[in-house]
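Dear colleague,

Thank you for sharing your sequence with our group. We've completed the structure prediction you requested, and as agreed, I am returning the results in plain text so they can be pasted directly into your records. Please verify that the sequence below matches your submission; if there's any discrepancy, let me know and we will rerun it promptly.
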Amino acid sequence: MFTHFKNDSIRKLVIAMGSLFNNVKLEQIDENNNTRLFAVPLSYATKEKFVKRLTQPSSISDNTRIQISLPRMSFEMSNFSYDFTRKMNKLNIKTLSNSINPTSSYTEVPYNFTFNLHVYTRNLEENLQIMEQILPYFSPEFVVSIKSNSLHPSVDVPISIGTTMLTQEYEGDFSTRRFIVSSYQFIAKYYIFGPIKTEYIIKDINLNLWREDGLTLSAPFGITG
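Please find the predicted structure tokens below.
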């Protein structure tokens, strides 16, 4: 029943989610009233791990310890569940016949994937500026197209925004770094695809022929006779 196959469906969804937020930019004004625009770095990490990296300086040598500069963003896939509302007949077969060797696969399985996006900034103004670049695109869905495999070259994936939260990490003494975190939950309605089978064209056959004379069979003749 179970055979090895590799579609990279979930991996492509994670890449698509990261590509949505890899071009967020922040505007800063220095003391000379000069405007500077730069991209906010994005990485795949959990919130707890990233907060720990912010509060505890990392060591790059025995004598040098540095802290991560802000602003930063991180995202993660936190959950996935079967979607009964999009269930289809599992015995349906999709076939691609416009090729030399036709390929086919059973119906894809609908799943909902939950992603969390976290934005870390030094002050509230920067966090609100990034927030304005994210929220307008989700009302409440934003659709992306993913090339899943040869049978599904373009799959539209609705991504809806769910819970949002803004927290300020200010506890501690005066030497403790203060940072603000805004969190966003997104739900992507995607599919899991099964193995793709290839049907090869029959080019050669071996055929045995017999000639029947009355009630008896003579020796075979023809190609294999």
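Summary note from our side: The chain has one domain: 9-217.

Kind regards,
the structure core
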